[in-house]
Amino acid sequence: MGRYTVVITGASGSVYGLRAIEQLLATGHEVTAMMTEAGRDVTAYETGFDLPAQQPEKALLRFLELGKDVPLRVACASDLFDPIASGSHKVDGMVVVPASMGFCSSVAHGAASDLPERAADVMLKERRPLVLVPRETPLSLVHLRNLTALAEAGAIVVPAMPAFYMHPETIDDQVSFVVGKVLDILGIEHGLFQRWGE
Ligand SMILES: Cc1cc2nc3c(=O)[nH]c(=O)nc-3n(C[C@H](O)[C@H](O)[C@H](O)COP(=O)(O)O)c2cc1C
C-alpha cells in the first residue's frame, strides 16, 4: 500500500481534505496529515473539528469515524525535522486540499518556509506526484501565473470544481466528486462517484 501526505491549508473547503484523508486511510494507505495554522482555524470554523495539539491522531480518527489501528500520523507544520522534509524519505504522492492561493504562491516561488511548503518543494524536486486542489474565485492574474508555474514544475492542478453531470443530490456527492478526481490522478481505486458510461 502507498504512503501519502495530505495538507489542509486555510482555503475554504477543508471538508475535501478531511474526505481525502478518510478515503486514503479507508483504502489501506498510510497517511501523514498536516494543517497549516490557517487550515486549522478554517477547518474548525467550517466543520467544527478543531485539531488538538495533544493526541491529534486520536481526535482526527474519531472525527472521521475510523478505527484507531489505521496508519495515520499527524505532523506539525512548523517541524522541519519531520521525515517528509527530506527527499530521501519515500512518499508516493502529496495532496494539498484545499490549497490556498498563499500556499500556491509560496510553493511556486520555492519558499519552503514551513513543513507543508518544504514537503511540496521536495515532491517537485524529486519528480513525485504533487496534487494541488486550489479553491479561490475569481482568480487574479497573479493566481493564474502561480498555478501555471506550478503546473510547469510538474504539479497536477485539480481545482475544487464539482461537476453536475452525475446529478449530485447532496453536498457529500459534490465533495466525493472532487476527492474522487484527486484519487484518480494518484491511481487509487475508489467508488466515490459513478463513472460516465459505466
Ligand atoms: C473563512 C475563510 C475562508 C477562506 N477561504 C479562502 C479560499 O477559499 N482561498 C484562499 O486562497 N484563501 C482563503 N482564505 C484566506 C487564507 O486562509 C489565508 O490567505 C491564509 O493566510 C492562508 O494560509 P495558509 O496557506 O498557510 O493556510 C480564507 C480565510 C478564511 C478566514
Topology record:
Blueprint: E1 3-8, H1 14-26, E2 30-35, H2 37-47, H3 56-64, E3 72-74, E4 93-99, H4 101-108, H5 115-125, E5 130-134, H6 141-152, E6 156-157, H7 171-186
Parallel strand pairs: 1-2, 1-4, 2-3, 4-5, 5-6
Helix pairs in contact: 1-7, 4-6
The chain binds flavin mononucleotide.
Please explain how this structure is put together.
This protein has 198 residues and is an alpha/beta fold. It is 40% helix and 15% strand. It has 7 helices and 6 strands, in the order E-H-E-H-H-E-E-H-H-E-H-E-H. It has helices at residues 14-26, 37-47, 56-64, 101-108, 115-125, 141-152, 171-186; strands spanning 3-8, 30-35, 72-74, 93-99, 130-134, 156-157. The chain has a 6-stranded parallel beta sheet with strand order 3-2-1-4-5-6, with helices on both faces. Residues 9-12, 36, 38-39, 42, 45, 100-103, 135-136 line the site of flavin mononucleotide.
